[in-house]
Specification:
The chain contains twelve helices and twelve strands. With about 270 residues, it is α/β, with parallel strands linked by helices. The protein has two domains: about 140 residues, Rossmann fold (3-Layer(aba) Sandwich), CATH 3.40.50.1860; about 120 residues, Rossmann fold (3-Layer(aba) Sandwich). A six-stranded parallel sheet has the order 4-3-1-2-11-12, with helices on both faces. A four-stranded parallel sheet has the order 8-6-9-10, with helices on both faces. Strands 5-7 form a two-stranded parallel sheet.
């Protein structure tokens, strides 16, 4: 009954942590493609091919349902995977939709026509590839009208977090927020469109200032998955063991992940 969780690196561990707390009875297999991270500077074709390969590896672990706990993969690969590649008996879900449903105050799975919502000015912080894909704006347009989105590509932040350089990551966040605020001085809401960013959420919030609601993904994705599995219990795969897989060096990734989550994590070679 395992569910797969995929990210290009260790950022998706923020989502995994929330999933494990919300669904403690479900085994999760985490796959980090650390050898090819970060995805945020890669081409759309490259991201698609790497994400498909990782998803197939998770299927081999008995995970019929895979969560792309990576905004770049969700933005650049998910739609193409669902339309051209996915077998009928498998499912791949992304992390954007739960976030947008929360932002637009919709119930999960509400596919009614787009309507006016309270939030009119939204700041999006994401990787360059996620920003370039415009996937967030596309999904938002299915659900809401009249929302102005200003997107800021946050180059360097993921690298700094993966390398454990908090000082650099926080300095980059402040710089990116300043750049966005020059274009949108008074956002009402800010979306942290990368699973690495919860680790520097406090810095985003401080730089944005009071009165800006910051949306982070982990708990929203966990609630959405719990709802999905209640409706589609047959999508729980045959896997029975939780494990951590990486295309990188297991010892190095385990060390970074343990520091990242502040609890012991042991990766195996994928």
């Amino acid at each position: 009954m395992a569910v797969g969780v995929f990210d290009s690196g260790i950022g998706g561990l923020t989502v995994l942590d929330a999933l494990q707390k919300r669904l403690p009875e479900v085994p999760f297999v985490y796959f980090g493609d650390n050898a090819h991270a970060p995805y945020g500077v890669r081409t759309a074709d490259d991201i698609f091919n790497l994400t498909c390969a990782a998803t197939e590896r998770l299927w081999a672990e008995g995970c019929d349902l895979v969560i792309l706990a990576c905004n770049t993969a969700s933005a650049a690969a998910l739609k193409r995977m669902q339309e051209t590649w996915l077998p009928a008996d498998k499912r791949v879900l992304g992390v954007f939709v739960p976030l947008i449903e929360a932002l637009t105050e919709r119930q999960w799975g509400d596919n009614s026509p787009p309507r006016e919502v309270a939030v009119k000015h939204v700041a999006l912080f994401a990787t360059p590839a996620t920003v370039a894909s415009r996937a967030f704006q596309r999904e938002l347009a299915f659900r809401a009208i009249g929302v102005d989105v200003e997107a800021q590509p946050c180059g360097g932040v993921v690298d700094a977090i993966e390398q454990g350089d908090e000082i650099l990551a926080e300095a980059l966040v402040r710089s990116h927020v300043e750049a966005l605020k020059r274009r949108m001085p008074h956002p009402q809401a800010a979306v942290l469109g990368c699973t690495h960013y919860p680790l520097v959420e406090k810095t985003f919030a401080e730089a944005l200032g009071q009165g800006v609601k910051v949306y982070s993904q982990a708990n929203l994705v966990a609630e959405s998955l719990a709802d999905y599995l209640q409706r589609r219990p047959e999508m729980l795969g045959q896997g029975t063991q939780s494990k951590f897989l990486t295309t990188g060096d297991p010892a190095s990734v385990s060390s970074k992940a343990t520091q990242f989550l502040r609890k012991g994590v042991v990766f195996q070679s994928a």
